[in-house]
Amino acid sequence: MFVTKKLGKVNRELTKRLFEARSVTLILKKDFSQRDVDVNEFFKFYNENSCQEDRYKPLTEQDYDRFLSTRAARREPALTRQITSLAYKVGKEMISLAEGMPNEQVFPFTRLSMDTKFSKLVLEGKDLAAALQYVPSQGLPALLSELRKFQSEAHRPPEVPRDVLVTNGGQHGIYQCVELLVEPGDPVITCEYAYTGIHSTLKPYQAEIIGIPEDEDGMIPETLDAVLGERLRRGLKMPKMMYIIPTGSNPTGTVLPEERRREIYELACRYDFLIVEDDPYMFLNYTDRPIPSFLSMDTCGRVLRLDSVSKVVSAGLRGAWLTAPKPLLHRLELHTQAELLHSCTLAQAILLQLVQCRKSLASHLTNAREFYRERRDALHAALKPVEHLAPYTMPDAGLFFWLRVNGIEDVYNMVFHTAFQRGLMLVPGQAFLYDSNAPCPYLRLTFSKIRHEDMDTAVSNLVEIIREEQQRAQQKPKRVATEG
């Protein structure tokens, strides 16, 4: 929406056409052959040598009541959804006149077959019938069992009652967490520049954003402590929720080190807020240092973790899940009942096949990481002529470079007029501010889909565009204080 506020009619039409969905065929030149990967090491997001502190008590079921929004607290279970869950538990042991399910015999599909880069996925008979049927709102039971096992093995979370909920993509999980925890006008902690999806979700709640600056290692815990301490001293309303992408922060590309994660978790316990850990780039960490997740440190039940395969398997599959303490997960499930009954069963069945084949999945994810690492390095090499015009730090994870343009207070005109007219599409830093009308000197560049042969041309155009904007900025008359 921030695009159309300032553009003229011509550019609005151009933008609309460019943003329309198109059918795209991708030809990958990278070899995605099977690799011999140590599965246990690859899926390791915990520190087995760390000592779990017991300075703070785990939250009880009653404690979570103070975090719930008024809307979430009012939700009640749908009896028909409870019956669906019960039907899956009792199976064929009972005669049922209860469920409002269609009969699978009327479904026209008889077999579904998909070839992947490492295996063949086939659904037929009872498996296909189950993949086309209603399921409990929490998710396909077989997938839930596999995800519980996956989370336990990959993160080894402390012994706190928690469970998983299948969501319709990571953005759906973000929306559910906000709906669960945020009241209109509530303060919410994010990074100074944060994923636009959290902002678009929070806008209707008119939230107060507490934006904490980042350096090359991500959010700065000392600054967070100082800001929250000052709010407490002044008697201001304290936040109940933090949203953070710890690995490959979007847009900055930073990776939060283990020490900082532990410091931030300790602040969550001290200042009494919950952490929404959104980790879609966990498998695109180019540092080769496995870093423990917030979930692996969650001794008190303060972490709601969002996982997604959109960036590494398929964006359109909408394969994602949310891990949270059981009292909160129950409320999230009630939201799902009212919102969409459950996420797509067919997508869940496909996700189940992928997660079950752990070794093949690890091989594919390794290939995906190397594919993107090579593209990151290629764009980094191409960006050399830009360094003195727009400094940046090499991204440690994710898909983005984050540039600060020298001598330009606001890149908006540069992005949507100068660059657009030259056929170069960029994203202005305003996209990652809660106030998208605020001036911003930053640009985000994405290396995931640009062709290698286009990188030098794009950078050459970017250099000319920046210089043109810098000259224009220097020619603007400076304000002079009036005398008298």
UniProtKB/TrEMBL annotation:
<dbReference type="InterPro" id="IPR015421">
    <property type="entry name" value="PyrdxlP-dep_Trfase_major"/>
</dbReference>
<dbReference type="Pfam" id="PF00155">
    <property type="entry name" value="Aminotran_1_2"/>
</dbReference>
<dbReference type="InterPro" id="IPR015424">
    <property type="entry name" value="PyrdxlP-dep_Trfase"/>
</dbReference>
<dbReference type="GO" id="GO:0030170">
    <property type="term" value="F:pyridoxal phosphate binding"/>
</dbReference>
<protein>
    <recommendedName>
        <fullName>Aminotransferase class I/classII large domain-containing protein</fullName>
    </recommendedName>
</protein>
<keyword id="KW-0032">Aminotransferase</keyword>
<dbReference type="InterPro" id="IPR050859">
    <property type="entry name" value="Class-I_PLP-dep_aminotransf"/>
</dbReference>
<comment type="similarity">
    <text>Belongs to the class-I pyridoxal-phosphate-dependent aminotransferase family.</text>
</comment>
<feature type="domain" description="Aminotransferase class I/classII large">
    <location>
        <begin position="131"/>
        <end position="461"/>
    </location>
</feature>
<dbReference type="GO" id="GO:1901605">
    <property type="term" value="P:alpha-amino acid metabolic process"/>
</dbReference>
<dbReference type="GO" id="GO:0016212">
    <property type="term" value="F:kynurenine-oxoglutarate transaminase activity"/>
</dbReference>
<keyword id="KW-0663">Pyridoxal phosphate</keyword>
<comment type="subunit">
    <text>Homodimer.</text>
</comment>
<dbReference type="InterPro" id="IPR004839">
    <property type="entry name" value="Aminotransferase_I/II_large"/>
</dbReference>
<keyword id="KW-0808">Transferase</keyword>
